[in-house]
Amino acid sequence: MKTKSLVTIIGAGAAGIGTATALKRLGIEDIQVIDKGEIGQSFLDWNTETRFITPSFNTNGFGFPDYNAITTDTSPGNFIDKEHLSGVDYADYLQQVAHFFQIPVITNETILKIHKKEDGYLLSSEQNDYETNYLIVALGDVAYPDVDKVIGSKHGIFYTNLGDYTHLKDSSVYSIIGGNESGFDAAIQLARRGKRSIIYTHTAGIDSESSDPSQSLSLYTKGRYRKYADLITIHSGVKIKEITPFEQSYYLTTDDGTVFMSETPPILATGFSNVKSPLIKDFFDVKGNRAVLNEWDESTLSPNLFMVGSQVEHEGVILCFIYKYRQRFAFIANEIASREGISIDEAELQLYKDYQMFLNDLSCCETDCAC
Known about the structure:
Layout: E1 2-10, H1 14-26, E2 31-34, H2 41-44, H3 76-80, H4 87-100, E3 105-106, E4 113-117, E5 120-124, E6 129-137, E7 157-158, E8 173-177, H5 181-192, E9 196-201, H6 219-228, E10 232-236, E11 240-246, E12 249-254, E13 259-262, E14 267-268, E15 286-287, E16 290-291, E17 305-307, E18 313-314, E19 317-318, H7 322-325, H8 329-340, H9 346-354
């Protein structure tokens, strides 16, 4: 079966459903969203113990939506009645948003290949083809761990596979590679169970003096860390480059040849990178572990192919939280409407602007604080 639409979005998470909603509200109806799982699948796949580090609080009536909202007029905190939501909680919220705004979502459909065409793109699954003029990648990042710099990473356990921690081999101390949010969260969850851990990291988020939450630990994580600090050792200034199994243990070798011993498979909290997806890797230039994008969040290699979500970065500004990257949903929708000559709903666009959800100048995104 072959279908055709003006805009196709791959990924039905926060970025995908949020962008689809912005497109519809601005007046672009010919859209479809495709996901290999359910709506909010990446959140459904979260560890059961993981919580949002950004609090949800209904501030919508005062010109700034709930930090974790993807529209101007919804609040996941109010909907779920929690401040720090789980992945399941947030997936429930996304499903309700998609239903309320009647977003056309095709679930459990795995796109196997993207083909560039003269007038757009052809997406192929096992049984179906989808033609589209504009393609928006909203893959998220949880499914794409950034482990390429660690030889033997297959011998470790990636953070997103920790589940409820009950399946971990019992040990007197656990090794964690990576010193940012996921690394500290793993250490905190282990400490809650009375377990000690060592975090091996080049730089630790807890030591950062930056006020940018993209560069340092969140206040939520800092507070939890202080409660369990006695059970958590931070080994800064090291880069683990290789994991080698040895009898019933594991050698962790640094880039300068120093070797540490781990009683159990080390926990990998080394970050994420969606450009590692084989589906899109040939359509984006890459710098570091992120896609290179132009001023419209569009691929510099493939015209009319956009990226939304936590992997978007511009000149050092990392849009890694929902309250950041949601400010580009309506921006991209407005750009597509402009290219197609579609008259948008100006009142809806103004609403996005009034509610701090339309960012077109990233030079203003400084986070320095006076105190």
